[in-house]
Amino acid sequence: MRFPDALRDQARSCRALGSPFMDRLLTGLADHMPPGTPLRDRIEGWPAPLGSSHASLPLRLASGLHHLVLTGSDGALADVYPPNAVDDATLIRTVLDALDRHESFLMSWIDRPPQTNEVRRSTGLIPAAHVLAARFGLPFVLSELGASGGLNLMFDRYALRAGGIQLGAEDPVLTLTPDWTGPVPDPVAFRIADRRGVDLTPLNLLDPAEVTRLMSYLWPDQAERRRLTLRAIETIELSIERGDAIDWLHTRLSAQRKGHVHVIFHTVAWQYFPADLQARGEALIAEAGAQATDEAPLARIAMEADDAGRGAGLTLQFWPGGQTEQLARIDFHGRWIDWTG
């Protein structure tokens, strides 16, 4: 896939996920970004697929532009970004000028993959946690793969409104309000005894510069995402470990967890792992599951693209036994959830 095709594909996804500005921006870049520049040539020669299921170069470039706006580095660019409104021709002309002015910065920025750390993905984690609490009645040990800055590791601090029922924290720091369809799991209390996460390029959300970087990955016309993310950042008390997810998980699974249920989870992360890493991870989890007991059970919550329906699939697998339950279909940004579990 060449870069204009990747831009158009990402534009369609952004439109479907409620960002008309990103649709306009990426479509305009697909139509008008000039070939033959050092930045365009570097992107076209990227050593991995450019699209959203792989290197996500459209989102890398768009977030770099947004970072220039958020840091006050380009006033002309800020003037055409939300909440300001301009026509498409003015938008793309200004963006192309910014690409030229800030080419050196953007060449460096795109080295790091996007880290959206969408806090609304806890819309799937909170009800799944209630299902696990009802099944095992044990405190949780959490291990998140692809944790970014760790916002979803704090899901027990959030509440979720499902119809007329509140799930999650009784005194939440924020409340998620997805469009909910289907039955609602019983609100069984759960407790997290330990939480850790890993990422190849984690964000340290105790560092204001890294907070700004995270906010750069949020789409400029989605103020509610920004509000929820900033509120969640206020609760952060941990740093995410840097490393290979499967090597890290091997270490986490080697410890005895008697009296706890060890919950491995990942949200829109597994799909980005190389195939060999996925295979190693599946084998490692299966091996650990085979050793699980009623006193030390193992569980895995996965929210990932699966081509089985709209949005992502939300599944729960648990051991002893290894059964997998299809809990829901869920929007990639947690705006809606169709619960079946």
Describe the fold and architecture.
The longest helix is centred in the last third of the chain and has 16 residues, at 275-290. It contains twelve helices and twelve strands. The relative contact order is 0.13. The two termini are 37 Å apart. The chain is 39% helix and 19% strand. It has 341 residues and is α/β, with parallel strands linked by helices. It has a nine-stranded mixed sheet, sandwiched between helices. The chain has a three-stranded mixed sheet with strand order 3-2-4. The protein has two domains: 3-109, no CATH class; 119-339, no CATH class.
Specify the structural class. alpha/beta
Distance separating the two termini: 37 Å
Arithmetic mean pLDDT? 95
The total tally of domains equals 2
The portion of residues forming beta strands comes to 15-25%
Number of helices: 12
User: What is the CA-atom radius of gyration, in angstroms?
Assistant: 21 Å
Which strand order spans the largest sheet, edge to edge or round the barrel? 5-12-11-10-9-8-1-6-7
User: In one word, what is the shape?
Assistant: globular
Which helices and strands appear, and what pairs or packs with what?
Elements: H1 3-16, H2 20-32, H3 38-44, H4 57-70, H5 75-78, H6 88-101, H7 103-109, H8 122-136, E1 140-145, E2 158-162, E3 165-168, E4 174-176, E5 179-181, E6 192-199, H9 208-216, H10 223-233, E7 241-242, H11 245-254, E8 261-267, H12 275-290, E9 298-304, E10 312-319, E11 323-330, E12 336-339
Parallel strand pairs: 1-6, 1-8, 2-4, 5-12, 6-7, 8-9
Antiparallel strand pairs: 2-3, 9-10, 10-11, 11-12
